[in-house]
């Protein structure tokens, strides 16, 4: 059994509905977050901290800051190995942690996480310049994730509860890929998780 698969199984054992803790999520980011974030020039942890920092700088709610911190934690849980998009695999990371997160957090945290991939598909449909600004890795994953929304699908998406926050998260997600960017430490953002 691969070490990543063993970790994923151990994570899910510790995240039983009667035993979930936000500290487990912090520990996951601290212990596993040093892996490279797809083909980007930052680690998973750096990306999470940068995204949460951008949300905090914009005066977001504790729930949205928490969503930004945790939005890609599913990448650390899938057990599919590194560089899934290079191998043509959609790891469906936006769904992987939701069962555990729902036991810990309200929809104001979990729904923007669940919807942040759809938000990319939405933004590509409504803003041609947005697609052009995506990184190569993000364009590659977009195709695996279903591609650009049709106008009808975009209209249906943005009408859903929490869609606006998912779009905000997505926009910060795209900007949170700066090598050596300075951010507050992980423990700083743990306080937001505790408040939620």
SSE layout and pairings?
Elements: H1 3-14, H2 22-32, H3 44-57, H4 62-70, H5 93-96, H6 98-102, H7 107-126, H8 128-133, H9 136-144, H10 151-158, H11 163-175, H12 186-195
Helix pairs in contact: 2-12, 3-4, 3-11, 4-7, 4-12, 7-10, 7-11
SSE string, helices as H and strands as E: HHHHHHHHHHHH
Q: Helix coverage percent of residues?
A: 55-70%
Number of E strands = 0
Strand content: under 5%
Biggest beta-sheet profile: none
Rg for CA atoms: 16 Å
The average pLDDT is 82
Q: How far apart lie the N and C ends?
A: 35 Å
Shape: globular
Helix count equals 12
Given helix and strand content, the structural type is mainly alpha
State the low-pLDDT regions, or none.
1-19
3D structure, described in words:
The structure is a single chain. Helices cover 62% and strands 0% of the residues. It has 196 residues and is an all-alpha fold. Residues 1-19 have low confidence and may be disordered.
Briefly, what is this?
The protein is mostly helical and 196 residues long.
Which structural traits does this protein have?
0% strand, 196 residues, mainly alpha, 12 helices
């Amino acid at each position: 059994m691969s070490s990543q698969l063993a970790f994923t199984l151990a994570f899910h054992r510790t995240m039983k509905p009667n035993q979930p803790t936000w500290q487990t999520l912090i520990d996951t980011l601290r212990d596993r977050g040093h892996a490279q974030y797809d083909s980007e020039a930052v680690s998973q942890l750096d990306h999470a901290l940068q995204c949460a920092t951008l949300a905090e700088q914009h005066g977001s709610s504790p729930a949205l800051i928490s969503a930004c911190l945790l939005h890609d934690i599913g990448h650390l849980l899938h057990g599919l190995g590194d560089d899934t998009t290079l191998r043509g695999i959609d790891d469906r990371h936006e769904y992987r942690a939701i069962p555990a997160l729902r036991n810990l957090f309200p929809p104001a945290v979990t729904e923007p996480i669940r919807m942040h991939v759809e938000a990319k598909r939405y933004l590509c449909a409504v803003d041609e310049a947005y697609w052009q600004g995506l990184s190569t890795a993000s364009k590659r994953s977009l195709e695996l994730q279903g591609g650009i929304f049709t106008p009808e699908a975009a209209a249906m998406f943005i009408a859903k509860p929490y869609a606006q926050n998912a779009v905000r998260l997505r926009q910060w997600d795209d900007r949170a890929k700066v090598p050596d960017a300075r951010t507050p430490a992980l423990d700083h953002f743990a306080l937001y998780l505790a408040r939620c």
